[in-house]
């Protein structure tokens, strides 16, 4: 999925630095209004995986259907929040030449909102069931279509006008529809008995609210993390178009490598959740340990790649040597926080599998906004470190979050774990927090 964003950035970067900055800013806005909804839908991880571990097929069916109901509601809210994009970006004092293009980019993403949320809901369901093949097939096809649509709409081919960064937004919307529809088609034999018949129970208000109560802290955690990087992008905009574009290159590469530990985190959430549903505490601990070892180990490798060859990676994005030089300064710093990034995301996945979503949110608040962002502002504007100062602040915040979450994982998995439920009054409720260790 992240490769689509990488390709968008590579192709828009061939137009101009302004278009590259506009796509970056438009992406910041789009994910700012959708990240909370994405987190809400991640409540399906513990709900479905624990239900599967317990052999509760009815809870699995209701969980998937409720996920699609929430996708509709989240689409309405997120689309409305996108409408004032230009006014809000201007209020944030972003470069005047970038704001109108960025706002049009964000609006072009609105038609793709529903398939974006629907894809996430169905992806979480298939992940919980261990059915990854339909997801992979669909996303490969969507990447190919995204390249074609980008080529046509960014550069003005086949009779279409050259839309630059805005064309990339429209291409993203088209590709997201393919993602949702393609996933339903390729996974229909698995999804059909869970989607049909569509039951009235999935519309019950109280269970829906309890799903939101479980997922909202995940959404807030994502917003806190993404907000820190988004705020860094806005602060880069105060330093100029070149720093903002260099920030986007470094962030794009860091986000791409981050996908591997993010995938490991998703797998950890599923395996830990299944173990909890089966009442297998030792299995949950083994899955958590394996996930942490893999996630951190991979990020050590990518950190070395960023530290040793920063200019090489930057030149993949742009021929502008001024832009390459600044991005090459930021990439080694990104390499240093890769290890902490792997640690924090896998730890959060483990906790999500248990059903603990509130503590990661609070720890992210402390790490990113009490430690990381104030340090970045001090380094950049107080100590005169320029764009690199913001990235050192982000590295400090990620390190703090990673260590705090690891401590929470060790504490929670030390005892017995209980299954959560959004409807069974005899099981722990997400509205009353995560299960408490009993041992």
Main features:
439 residues; mainly alpha; disordered C terminus
Q: How would you explain this protein's 3D organization?
A:
The protein is an all-alpha fold and 439 residues long. The protein has helices at residues 2-12, 17-41, 44-54, 57-82, 85-91, 99-108, 113-129, 133-155, 165-186, 188-195, 205-239, 241-278, 281-308, 310-315, 321-354, 358-382, 387-412. It has two domains: 1-203, no CATH class; 214-439, no CATH class. Helix 13 runs antiparallel to helix 15. The longest helix has 38 residues, at 241-278. The protein starts with a helix and ends in a 27-residue tail after the last helix. Mean pLDDT is 89; it is low at 431-439.
- Tell me the Rg in angstroms: 21 Å
How much beta, percentage-wise? under 5%
Number of domains: 2
Count of distinct strands: 0
* Portion of residues within helices: over 70%
N-to-C SSE series? HHHHHHHHHHHHHHHHH
Instruction: Decide which structural class fits the backbone.
Output: mainly alpha
Question: Which parts are unreliable, with pLDDT below 50 for 5 consecutive residues or more?
Answer: 431-439
Mean pLDDT over the residues: 89
Largest sheet entry: none
CA-based shape:
globular
Number of helices: 17
Distance between the termini: 40 Å
